Structures are given as C-alpha cells and as structure tokens.
Amino acid sequence: MIDLKLDTTGDLDLRRNDLSWVDGAERVHQQLQIKLKLWKGEWFLNTEFGTPYLQQILGKHITLNGALAALKNSINEVDGVQEIEQFNYDFDRQTRQLTVHFAVKTPYGLVKYKGKQ
Question: Which residue of 19, 39, 42, 81 shows the fewest CB atoms closer than 10 Å?
Fold first, then answer.
C-alpha cells in the first residue's frame, strides 16, 4: 500500500512542487499519526475513522485503563500494524495530559511513535 506524503503540519508535502509518496514503515508511521490525531466522527467522509476520544477516552466516567485500551485498539486498527511490541505512557494528573510512547511490529520492521494525546 502507498500513501501521499504529508509534511510536519499534516498538509501535502509539496517541497519540490510535486506530490511525494510514502510506503513501508514510513507509511505506517504516518497512518498512526493520522489515526491518533483525528477524532472519531470528525471526518465527514468516514465518521467511523479516527480515535474515539469523546466516546472512550475523555469524560468523567472514563478510567485510565479504559482510555489506554481504546488507544491500543486504535493503534492496532492501522493497516500494517501486526502487534504492539512496547507501550509506555505518562499521565500528569494535575494537567490531565497523557503522553504515549510505543513501538509496533510491522512487515517493514519496528515502527516507533512518540506523542501527546
């Protein structure tokens, strides 16, 4: 599978005034970024795509374990992800900020991700 390459802001990468393509591990990493940044229901063409932040991660009656399980499920849904090899998180209760670091096994090798949710 092949994808259009996005720049660091999430726009199409047009550095050479032409579209660029990504494949392999770079494509899986880009798809992980898209999946984790897009809220489920946000994209009008496919309201089932994205991470279920409102449905399963944010809210008064959500547990940390439930939120982490929802994140892991979202990660596993990305095309090319075979399994999560490592998953670490840091939750700052005062600011309510969750930072996740993980590595996933793919047909192209290990893909690492580091970001805030």
Answer: 19
